[in-house]
Amino acid sequence: MVVGRPDTDQPVDRLTAPPVVRSRLRRVRPVDALVVAGYLGLAVLLTGDQWRRPERLFHQAGDQMLFEWMLARAARAVTAGENPLYSTALNAPDGVNLMANTSVLGLGVPLTPVTLLFGAQAAFLVAVVACLAGTATAWYALLARRLVRSRAAAAVGGLFCGFAPGMVSQAGAHLHMAAQFLVPVILGLVFRPATDRVRRDGTLLGLAVAYQVFLGEEVLVFLALAAGVFAGAYALADRAAARRLTPAVLRRLGVGALVAGVLLAYPLWFQFRGPSHYTGMPFFAEGYRLDVASFTAAARQSVAGDDRHSGLLSPNPTEQNSFFGPFLPLLALLVVVRLWRRPLVRALAVCGLLLALLSLGTTIVVNRHDTGLPGPYRLIAGVPLLDLVVPARFALVCVPVLGVLLALALDRVRHRSARTWAPWAGAVAAALLPLVPTPIRTVPVVPVPAFVADGGWRAYVPPGRTLVPVPPVTGAAKSPATFWSARTGLAFDAPGGYFIGPRSGDDPTARWGAPDRPTSLLLRRAAETGQVPPVGDAERRQAVADLRHWRAAVLVQAGSLPGDPVRATVDALIGPGRDVPGAHIWDVRPLLG
Q1: The 3-state secondary structure of 307-356, one letter per residue
Q2: Residue 106 resides in a domain
């Protein structure tokens, strides 16, 4: 392995090369500020529709409601000194194990000032911008410091890593998947080419891993698997580097594991054994797999995409993780062939290909046709932790793999003649232009009733009692309790909510939302069928028992009309209510005593 400055024909992988003086690389330049400003501007542009029209939410509105609530809850934990891992503000009186849900404390805690000053919606939008631009910036920094000499090449690679179709589709709904700005940091620490400062690097690694847990554990699982595959492939490609670096890498990992283990021992115990913990997943995770044809298709949130075709090739609009267009996979293949001598490229190719295959699930689907051929995912489907992740998200690992390959390709020809450079630049442009992201789509939502938003409920709900949205349970991703609570800063406790919890106190099997109560099921049936179900004395007695369990003080239905079947059902159960601004309410304090 050549030590020192590489030439354009025989590049050295600075990821693993012995350290050289890099003061030039470490100096912040004006171009760096311009690149980061460009990333920020693009992220703001993609979220612009909601900045302009705050009465709307991103297309997966239920997911945004959940993360707004999580950000509001984190701010509440900071200001009130409450347990950040658990809350009874939803699913009252039993509560929610937040550590076992996507609580994104790593975003919510630092965004507390934004949440308190401007509300949960603004905090959510700032978080989306920070995740997209932050991930792009972190990859740009790693590329510029370790892997390429050209700032332009690093900028293109970082741009793709932060704003690839899969990242944009996730950002509109899943903050925990879009928050990948620590991934390059962790990789840079693990694969640092120097063999000194093991304790320092290991400590920083442990801190970064612990923080990533509070951003998104699923990303960390993918990162660990991808890093292991990459390291194994690189060791086979460059045995000399592997012999030199393995002792230091293992020591760093050991120190990092010790630091992270100490910091995460209690949170992880709370997640898996604490109150309201659950086992398994509330949905069939293996059903979320990717179609082989999706790897050459255009995503919905791109200039070349369309709703119909992309929708047929993905589990849902937020899981379009593999939509790399018709030209980028071909360009990546060409780059791998041209740069095959480099161990880094070989390792990237193996890692990207394997994770792409894992995203196909247990059987291979090609253009919506299930071939019945077994997929590699079958080999790991029962592995602890890996059995809890969504197979379709394995393809997100391909995003940085492709981003690094793009940067390497552009860097390779930076000093070549125009005859050599122009075709490469043109090929990269042709591959990326169809993937240019479009603003994240928004949908209208029913606003929070003025009775709730303006605090009119306070005259009805004494300490220790709850406000009950009607109907209390409306499906996995439709929860007025979550939305109203988030937009009011968790000002009241409510039953129901959008979260994952156990089926009951005796059954830890995972389910969406609160355990069913007879009255909530009755009201949900009325909402779904549009018919008033039969109501007798038994149903009325059960309603009183359920209201006591919820510690209800007032029931609130938004946008209610006199002929509404849900309203009529509640009237039949507990008597007529009355209209208030934007809602209809039932004061149940006299009924419950």
Answers
A1: HHHHHHCCCCHHHCCCCCCCCHHHHHHHHHHHCCCCHHHHHHHHHHHHHH
A2: no
